[in-house]
Amino acid sequence: MYLVMSDAYIALADGRVVEARGRVPGRTRGELVFTTAYTGYEESLTDPSYEEQVLTFSYPLIGNYGVREERLESDRVHPRAAVAREFTDDVVEWLAEEDVPAIDHIDTRDLVTSIREEGAMKCGIAVGDDVTPEDAREELAKCKGMSEHVDIGKQVSVDEPEHYTGGGVADVALVDCGAKGSIVSSLTERGADVHLLPYDTTVSEIESLDPDVLFISNGPGDPANFEQAATLVEEFVGEIPIAGICLGQQVVARALGGTTEKMAFGHRGVNQPVMDLETGQVVMTTQNHGYTVADPGDTLNVTQRNVNDDTAEGLANEDLDVITRQYHPEANPGPHDTLGFFDEVLGMVGHGGDKQRKAVADD
Ligand SMILES: NC(=O)CC[C@H](N)C(=O)O
């Protein structure tokens, strides 16, 4: 396949326009963020939580072990563009097929330093023969802030319910706010059946499903734009065990009297240390978020905290059977320290815990 090498510019909200090498042509815009993950580029690029963002890899060589379909977390690439010091041709071919602009031969240390100092910022990108800095500036001028993407749930969610069979251990209603595929497989591998439901699923639809767990997935943008998922949590708390991952934790907290706020540049990477406050144990986690729970409210307790900056990484109310994580316990790419979360979630199910233990014992 012919690989395009063309002009490229990225215009940053701080006023700079930086030249790069064009690898996949196109014009686009988004919130410029970075991940420090040195592995897992296929998983990151297909994580729906990156919708409407431009993803910079701080690790300098991206693509050195190819692109394999079984490692993808959804059916398309979600960032609007990708930025690296150097992309291999494998990744460029994949991004070209996906029509996602890509640029490299740019000083990503400098970009990351700017984002760390000034916060995640809007950017505009123009890639192609004869593009000008002005083209990138025009894209930047059209860029919306993350919280202005009020319909972002619709962009990433399933339109109709989908059913994934596990083994009858429990029925999980997973509200798809942009779920990574490995959240579904982490549940089915443990014997649970998963109903993957649209982000705007109604109270009566949940009532007719009568699930054993209501699970709010990860997803992109501002959790304030997922009001219907919060309504489900308000309605069913205390009646159905509730779980949440990442955006799911934020939605659950907001529904139960807590607040969320935007972080300066967020956490994105695969080595974020998290301490469990009860056991004192520290685990390494996969993360991708730009918002955080500022105040958990009176109903939830903070059970885990980020060792670097103390932000809330786990929330719970044992009496009401609510448990959430800010990081991605399903990992992918890893590390796999946190997969036990899914056992804890299924352990909340009425008799599900016993059934599950039996299913494991029978294996
Ligand atoms: N991975 C996620 O679910 C991200 C949650 C939310 N969009 C944030 O940026 O904080």
TrEMBL record:
InterPro entries: Anth_synth/Amidotransfase, CarbamoylP_synth_ssu, CarbamoylP_synth_ssu_N, CarbP_synth_ssu_N_sf, Class_I_gatase-like, CPSase_GATase1, GATASE. The active site is at C246, H328, E330. Pathway: Amino-acid biosynthesis; L-arginine biosynthesis; carbamoyl phosphate from bicarbonate: step 1/1; Pyrimidine metabolism; UMP biosynthesis via de novo pathway; (S)-dihydroorotate from bicarbonate: step 1/3. It catalyses: L-glutamine + H2O = L-glutamate + NH4(+); hydrogencarbonate + L-glutamine + 2 ATP + H2O = carbamoyl phosphate + L-glutamate + 2 ADP + phosphate + 2 H(+). One of its GO terms (molecular function) is carbamoyl-phosphate synthase (glutamine-hydrolyzing) activity. Gene3D superfamilies: 3.40.50.880, Carbamoyl-phosphate synthase small subunit, N-terminal domain. GO terms for biological process: 'de novo' pyrimidine nucleobase biosynthetic process; 'de novo' UMP biosynthetic process; glutamine metabolic process; L-arginine biosynthetic process. Keywords: Amino-acid biosynthesis, Arginine biosynthesis, ATP-binding, Glutamine amidotransferase, Ligase, Nucleotide-binding, Pyrimidine biosynthesis. Residues 6-126 form the Carbamoyl-phosphate synthase small subunit N-terminal domain. PROSITE patterns: GATASE_TYPE_1. Small subunit of the glutamine-dependent carbamoyl phosphate synthetase (CPSase). CPSase catalyzes the formation of carbamoyl phosphate from the ammonia moiety of glutamine, carbonate, and phosphate donated by ATP, constituting the first step of 2 biosynthetic pathways, one leading to arginine and/or urea and the other to pyrimidine nucleotides. The small subunit (glutamine amidotransferase) binds and cleaves glutamine to supply the large subunit with the substrate ammonia. This is Carbamoyl phosphate synthase small chain.
